[in-house]
Specification:
Shape: extended
Distance between the termini: 64 Å
Number of strands: 0
Structural class: mainly alpha
Strand content: under 5%
Helix content: 55-70%
Radius of gyration: 17 Å
Order of helices and strands: HH
Largest sheet: none
């Protein structure tokens, strides 16, 4: 008898789609594998870190 898996509600968070050149994608994919995380999580971390740095730079310049 198969047990039913709990249903997962889709996220209502905004999302984006990014396209990469093959070489860039392979680099990011290898990096993500070395960190044992999905490439989507690596890209999210990189984007959020860049946004945080930009916010800090903007705060310093005002």
């Amino acid at each position: 008898m198969l047990s039913k898996l709990p249903s997962v509600m889709p996220s209502s968070k905004p999302k984006v789609q990014i396209r990469f050149e093959d070489e860039d994608f392979r680099y990011l994919e290898d990096w993500a594998k070395s960190e044992f995380i999905p490439i989507t999580q690596l890209c999210r971390q990189l984007i959020l870190k860049a946004a945080e740095q930009r916010k800090l730079e903007q705060e310093r310049s005002t």
